[in-house]
Design goal:
The chain is of the alpha/beta class. Helix content is 35%, strand content 21%. Helix 2 packs parallel to helix 7. The radius of gyration is 16 Å and the shape is globular.
Amino acid sequence: MRKLKNNELGRISVDEFKSTPKTPLIVVLDNIRSLNNIGSVFRTSDAFLIEKIYLCGISATPPNKDIHKTALGATESVAWEYVEDTLTLIQKLKDSKIKVLAIEQAENATKLDTFYPKKREKYAIVMGNEVKGVQQEVVNASDLCIEIPQLGTKHSLNISVTTGIVLWDLFQKMQ
């Protein structure tokens, strides 16, 4: 078995990415403090053809060298927008008939492995702050809370890891 070289991977250009049909998923970053986490979310969103990323509250925006360090250029391919108030954005998304899924450990949360997105439905996943998680008022405004089942001693996963798991799961279920 031989590792493939980058030029053998058949990747599309940024221009081709922009004109390619997207996965009907939006990522909302609710007060993410780590620029490396933000960059990682961009890179993962590029991999799964995510429609758009919203950066909210204290979340930093491109261009930024620390975001670029982990995004590796994905800030150029994935559409993004800064919105100061996450709750205002959530209401706007819901008004546009987008289902909002807060990724959070909450009472009566739906386990990720049992959630199946509906065909022809668009979803926004809300990822919360590294320490405080998704704001409670945003959880309250969301259509559903999704939780990744965990069995170990730790209480949570890193936001970039969580985003990767959730996007992969929804992406493959939508295919």
